[in-house]
Every structure is written in C-alpha cells, then in structure tokens.
Amino acid sequence: MISDKMKELLATHIKNTLITSGDVGLGGNSTSPSSTQLDVPLGLNITPSVISTNSNTIEVKLSIPGSASGMAGKVLREAGFFNSTNLLSRVNFEGIGPFASNETVEIFFIIEVE
Known about the structure:
Elements: H1 4-18, E1 21-25, E2 49-54, E3 57-65, E4 76-82, E5 87-96, E6 104-112
Antiparallel strand pairs: 1-4, 2-3, 3-6, 4-5
C-alpha cells in the first residue's frame, strides 16, 4: 500500500514531466508491453493536454484536426502518448473515420495512480 501523498506525488510527476507527445495510428491489434511505438503510426507528434482531475487522477487529451497532414481518408484504430522516446500508453479501438478536414477528433486517456 502506498500513501495518498505518494499517489498524489506520482500523479503530479507523470502530469508535469513524463507526457510530452501523442500520436494516432491505423493499427488495431493488441500491443506488446515492450513496444516503443504505435503499430501503424501516422507520425503526427500531437501536443497533449494533460490535467489533474483530482489528486491521483490524470486526464490526457489528444485533439487531432481532420486537416492534419496524413489524416485525410484514414480510419484510426489506435492512439498513444509518449515521453521523449518511449511509448507510455496505447489503446486500440474499433475504427473511427474517415474525417473531413473541418472535423476534430478528441481522444481521452484517464490514468489513476492507485
């Protein structure tokens, strides 16, 4: 068991220092925990919005405009976020898209330190 203060400190560290970029991709299968990138990344280098929703929970939001290079006509099946060199989290999902250039896709990750 870790204390509430430790949970808060870990969540703050993750929020403030670890999450630096995000990406989406076309791959939809499961990923090995040792993977360092998405299965089929689009290479968009998205700047995530990272907020604390309470002392031990973090929300990571990736906003991707349909006008982004590489998005036209694509069906997204995976999303992830990274620190400078490592894939920190990835989720695969049922395909969404294709998107018009005036649409924006928002993908949310919720991380809870327990």
